[in-house]
Amino acid sequence: MSKKLDTPSGEASSSGLRATVPSSSVAGEPHESLYVLSPIPTILRHIMLTNSGEWPSWLPTFLALLSLVFACSLYIIHTIALVYGKLHLWKKVKFDRKREGVSIIKPIVGLDANLEENLKCFCELDYHQYELHICFQKRDDPAVPLVKRVLANYPNLDVKIHYGGEKVGLNPKINNMMPAYRSAKYPLIVVSDSGIWMHSDALMDMVNCMQPGYALVTQVPYCKDRKGFANNLEQIYFGTSHARIYLAGNAMKFVCSTGMSSMFRKSALDECGGLEAFGGYLAEDYFFGLELMNRGWLCDVSTFPALQNSAHLTVDRFIDRISRWVKLRIAMLPHIIIVEPIQDCFTCGILASLATSYLFGWNPLIHFTLHTICWFTSDWTLNRMMQNGSLQISFPEYLSTWVVRETIAPFIFLYALCNQDIEWRESRFRLEWGGRIRQNNRFHNHHNHYSADKIKKSIGNLIFRRGITDAEYDRAAEETLQRMYEYFDTVPDKHNVSKEYDVSYSMGVLTTVISKEIGTYVINKQSPNRQIWLSSPISGPKRYDLVEEKGLADKGEPAQRGLRLRQDRKNEPTKLKPQDNQGRHDDMSYRPCNFFYNVTGEEAERLLKEYGVDGEFLARPSESHPRNFTLSIVRGESVTHIKIHNKDDMLNLCGGESFPSLSDLVQFYMENPDQLQEKNGGTIVLRRPVSIPLSEPAAKEVREPTAQRWFHANITGAEAVQLLSKEKQWAFLVRESQRQPGYYAITVKTDENVVHILIRRNSATGMYHVGGGDEFRSVSDLLEHYNNNPMVEENSQRVVHLINLVPSTCVPADAIEARISLLQHLDPNTNKTGLAEEFEKVPTNESYLSKREGKRDVNVNKNRYKNIVPYDHTRVVLKEVGQNPGDTDYINANYIRIPGGPPLYLLSDKVYISTQGCLPHTVVDFWKMVWQENCRVIVMTTKEVERAKSKCERYWPDLNFEKKIGLLLIKNVEEVVVKNDVNEDSYIKRKLVVTNGDSPPRELSHLQFVSWPDHGCPDHPEHVLDFLDAVDDAWEKTPNPKSPIVVHCR
């Protein structure tokens, strides 16, 4: 309904505007339009104008006073933030082992360059009882393999992985987290985004803040140090403008929270309806706090900020992100639309300078300059406070970036105001007043078949042109999206489409979700060779390639563009067939290897019966169908053969679940032994691949390349791309084909992307080739040839070189001699051996692993070497701590445990403690550890003194003497010096008896290797092997085989 406003006398009739207030068809429903601003200036004009049509005289004074009051308010907020930050941030954590357990929920969508580092820190938190829930919306999320690989290093961590989510609203993050929320077993829940890096004791700090009466603890968002202008821009924003409002707001008990990292009581949130009650909001974290405070609960801020550590940021992405937050704030708190644009330094300074000039006659330029200096000083101080020290960039660089940030702030606000839609997590939403969201769907009623054709034609015409740049791609994708909008809006209303489906374009990815019949189509400019992949639940993944200048050609199956060879000796180039697909990016640590052999069924039975045990298996080609395979498994005294069907390049067993490769299929049934059953209900168990010695021709054929430095065993194409991402142009490696067992693939990094070239084997001659041309007896000969005869892309004529070999450091044990021989060869180009090259690539440290305890001031003097300290997550913690100053639970020692299961299936379950040679003041702690861990074997690989320097304090008594160390009494009851084959002292065996008060005495074996030189290695390995045999003998005689073996040098 509309109401016409009367115009004042003398006004033209055209100035009497209509203020239209949209009404909803349903009472209580929010308005369709969000920011209906056009009537407001008109209403104010009619209220404030005098009868003569002039502004009242009091208005400038009123506005000047209002501006001055607002500026003073901002300075008060500055002061509150600085004081609160100084008193609250980065405080020492008090550890309380009696606090309740914590369930950590991490929703993950997509692969990020820093995801591994971020995930590891959550696996190493210094807290006595917590569980980790990883949430994926899709099972084929590219981050799944990386997450599995990281978690494999933490076998004792309580972790669960959830897939699929549960739809309870429009917020995709809430939907993704629902299964984890429902299965969380602890009363405290932490929700932390995948891009957050957390200090090892930050969780304990959050729990400490969760005092009785409190239900929410949030972390102030900040940024981990990363290089680049956009990253500096983001760090300054979160360290100044955002931190100021966040800290001051929480100091004044206003709701001010973000969902990057926050902790809440599950029982309190259940009172509010649970996590699902907030599925209709994007800023769910803000509404958590609002609802909890309305119910009488309190909120607090952790003393540790939440450090964002996502991949490299661009200025465009920074602007998009900040503008999204501005839209959220405006929708949740409408008055922000007035405050937001004038709360930054320059706009506030201009208003305050004009106000003081009008009221007091001050020079506005001088006032603005002083204002800017004060504001910058406050921001600089607050930023350093958030950083907890010096900033990563220089002062001039900081100043210039700060000026840029303050300058663009009003324009970001205007940019946000002009576009009401929010793109987030591959979806587009429209905000409503109060913070609720609805799916933004511009596709109303269109014909499914023609819409799909239109998409394909539009993309083919616009995107795939030869030599397209990233900027051209972005413009083409935007134009394509606009054409889709225009097309679907003109289609007659015949076929309804659910409002949950949409089209969006963000960061180079065009996502088209049209209807349940058509499915989801994704166009990604980062696909290899600028291909287009149309992924649909109906048709499966299809790829379209550029063919000359004709646009797209449907290949019907995933396959790379062809290459052809350039051969200087031949005029006629040889075309290559499509190469191996990259395959699924799976976790190589979970994937089985060396299980495919090119043998007949009869030969498979012989090999399995001769070398296999129950549950061991191999895969081989099918003898009845060339595209199928057969799985042969040892079951008792017999061998069972199961056909693997190949349908549309997807493999399955007897119509069961389909997999893109043999490795994926075998891995699944090894990890899920109850899934493979006979018709009579009997279970067929796959334990591990059979180990066939190299003396067998079948094994030699399969494993011969594994000794070569260029061969990378058991990796997919996607993992090969990741390995080459940090290498030079024309770097290459060779791997097994995941799609076509028995074949190999060359993965090469070109000037723009990575290509994969399939190496085939002629079954008739046994020779290797790349789709035509010359054939070679071995893959090594093939590579050597094409080092001198580079390859060329079939259409673009671009040369593909094989220049920079990326060596593998993984080698089977039975190929170690051949690999060492290769590593000792001198490369004429680099004048280095392979051993020297690999040694130079060994990382000297792993900064992502916490070593906080060993670097504490009170513990530094307990380290023999300042740069060698134990990792916090595996260090030995002393349970008995003395009362003297300097007594702590710290000793420089780490547990070393051997993981069982795939991929190595090691039978040993030994546990080791690796520690340093004792210092005079750490001997007591050393024996405390030995007694605490019930250690019965101590291995010492150094002398007490070498080259007149003390290497290890003597911590045992002489033969037939005893020594009191702390509360323990150590007696040396036996000592034998063992000679080597040249009659030199090799090692010493001692028998020590340790007594602790009234406890039964314990007998320990102490073995000291005394023939290891101070620098270098022993001349004869036999001496070391004899010593290791003695260690094994001592361990086997211990009464407690589960007790750790202590090993130390100097």
Automatic annotation (TrEMBL):
The species this protein was found in: Diploscapter pachys
Keyword RNA-binding belongs to the record: no
GO terms, molecular function: ceramide glucosyltransferase activity; ferric iron binding; non-membrane spanning protein tyrosine phosphatase activity; phosphotyrosine residue binding
Keywords: Glycosyltransferase, Golgi apparatus, Hydrolase, Ion transport, Iron, Iron transport, Lipid biosynthesis, Lipid metabolism, Membrane, Protein phosphatase, SH2 domain, Transferase, Transmembrane, Transmembrane helix, Transport
Catalytic reaction(s) noted: N-(9Z-octadecenoyl)-sphing-4-enine + UDP-alpha-D-xylose = beta-D-xylosyl-(1<->1')-N-(9Z-octadecenoyl)-sphing-4-enine + UDP + H(+); UDP-alpha-D-xylose + an N-acylsphing-4-enine = a beta-D-xylosyl-(1<->1')-N-acylsphing-4-enine + UDP + H(+)
Family indicated by similarity: Belongs to the glycosyltransferase 2 family. Belongs to the frataxin family.
Transmembrane segments: 58-84
Top-level taxon in the UniProt lineage: Eukaryota
Protein name: Uncharacterized protein
Biased amino acid composition, Polar residues: 10-26
InterPro entries: Ceramide_glucosylTrfase, Frataxin/CyaY, Frataxin/CyaY_sf, Frataxin_CS, Non-rcpt_Tyr_Phosphatase, Nucleotide-diphossugar_trans, Prot-tyrosine_phosphatase-like, PTP_cat
GO cellular component, one term: Golgi membrane
Composition-biased stretches (Basic and acidic residues): 549-558, 565-587
Pathway(s) served: Lipid metabolism; sphingolipid metabolism; Sphingolipid metabolism
Entry annotated with the keyword Transcription: no
Membrane-related topology note: Multi-pass membrane protein
